[in-house]
Amino acid sequence: MGYDVKFITKNFGKYDPMSIDSYLSIGGFAALKRAMAMDGEDIASLIAEAKVKGRGGAAYDMGRKWSQSRAVKAPHKLVICNADEGETCTFKDRELIKNDPFNLIEAITICGYTVNAQDGYIYLREEYRHLRPLLLNAIKQAEEHNLLGYNIQNTGFNFHIHLYSGAGAYVCGEGTALIRSIEGKAGRPRKKPPFMKVSGLFALPTCVNNVESFSIVPHLLMDEAREYVSYGSGESLGTKLVSLGGNVRRPGVYEIPFGTTVRDIIYELGQGIPGGQSLRLIQFGGASGKISDGRILDTPYTYDDLKAAGVTVGSGSILVIDNRTSVLDFLRMTQDFFSEESCGQCTPCREGNLHIKLILEKMARGEATQADIRDMKKIATIMSISSLCGLGESAQNALLSAMKIFPKIFEIGGAA
C-alpha cells in the first residue's frame, strides 16, 4: 500500500486554477450535475456510507450533519465553508484552495443543493488573503457558466456564494465566533443551543464544514469504482490530508490512506528528523492537540487508534519536535499562543490561560513549587470542562497530556 495517494488531491496540477474551461476539460462540475439529478437525502446517505467525518477537528459524521440540516424546514437556509485554518502547523486547506479552487466551489454548491440552501459563505482567514483573487475568480467564472447563481443549469436551483475574510483571530475558527465575525460583530463564541443548523448566520439555519470536508464530496459522487472506501477500515474509511511540519526533512501536505502508521508518515513521507537529532515529542491536531512521544510511532493513523493512544486526529496536523527543544519550552510556547488568542469572554479561559502561563514561567526559572504544579493541573482541568468554547476546552490538551507522558518534568527537581 502506498503511503501517499491521490483521491482528494487528484486534480492537483491537472488544470489551470484560474480557468474554469481548464477545470471542465478534466470533468469538472460533472459531480454537481449528477447531484442535481439525485435526491438530497441520497447524497447525504452516500457521504454517511463512506463514513466521512468532518475534517475541521470535531470529526462529526458529515452525512448525518447534512441530513440533519436538510431536515430543518425554513424558507432561507445557508451553507458556510470554514477556511479559517488557524491551527498551528495546519496548512492542508490552503493547498486545496490554491490547487483546486473550482472543486471547492462545486462542493459548496452541492451542499447547498443537498440541504436546500440558497446562499453559501466562504470565511477565509486573513493570512490567506493572497487566495482571495483565486476564489473570487472561481465564483465569477462559475456564475458566467451558469454553474452558480440563478437557475443553475435550468434546474430552478438558485445558489450564490459570498467570500468573507477574517482579521486574524484564531478563535474565529470556532463556528459561532466565525458567524459573529461575518455578521460584523466581535468574533466571540456564543452558547449552544440554539445549534447552528437551526439558528446560525443571521439567525438562519446554517450548515458549516471546513475546506477539506467539502473537497471530498465531488470526488465521492464520481467514485463509481468505490476507490475511496477501499482505503482504511472500520470507522476510518478513505484518505486523509495531513500537514506534516516541525523537525522533519520534508515537511508538507500528504494525502494518506487511513491506517498508515505515524512512523511511516514521519520517516517515509517526511524522510525523518534532520541532523541526527532524536525525537522529543509529536503534537497531533494543532496547538489545541495532545502530545505523545516515540511510543506512538507504530500506531495506525485512524480515529480509533489515535484516540486509544491518547491523542486525536484534530485538524490533521502532525508537528514533530526533536531533542533540541525541551518539553517545558514547548509548553511555554503553546501557552503564549493561547494567552494571546483567548478572546477573554469567559473567566475559565481568560484567567486560566494567564495563571498557567505564570506557573510555567516559574518552572522555567526554577521557582515553582509542587503546590504550583497541583494548582496548574487543577486550573487546566477546570478550563477543559467549564470554558464556553472549544478554545478554552482544548487549550490545555498539550499540558495535560504532557503531565501523563512526561511526569518527571512536573516533579520539582526533575529534568526539563
How would you describe this structure to a colleague?
With 416 residues, the chain is of the alpha/beta class. It has 3 domains: 202 residues, Rossmann fold (3-Layer(aba) Sandwich); 92 residues, Ubiquitin-like (UB roll), CATH 3.10.20.600; 84 residues, Up-down Bundle (de novo design (two linked rop proteins)), CATH 1.20.1440. Helix content is 40%, strand content 13%. It contains 16 helices and 11 strands. The strands form 3 sheets. A 5-stranded mixed sheet has the order 8-7-11-9-10. It has a 4-stranded parallel sheet with strand order 3-2-1-4, with helices on both faces. A two-stranded antiparallel ribbon has the order 5-6.
Structure at a glance:
α3 packs antiparallel against α4 and α13 (347-365) runs antiparallel to α14.
